[in-house]
Amino acid sequence: MTRRVASAKQGGQPDRYTDERFVGLGPSDHDFAGADLTRCAFQRDDLSGADLRGARGYVISPLDNDLGGMRVALPEAMGLIAALGVVVE
Q1: Where are the alpha helices (DSSP H) in the chain?
Q2: With contact defined as beta carbons under 8 Å apart, do 73 and 46 qualify?
């Protein structure tokens, strides 16, 4: 399933987007803060300015997506490194 969103936050509650495909999201302030992004795929998305603080379960390739200015928090931000095949011990 391919889903295009302008903002992932609705009603102030953490959202669940498990098993979703986000393809071609445009440059906007996407709010995935606190969302469950388990098994989601991000392809050719402009996530500059996106807020993923507190989001969990994401693995987003910095090679396939524009991530400049994206806000993340540890330890979940390790999903950006995992997408590159780097093992952190």
Answers
A1: 78-82
A2: no
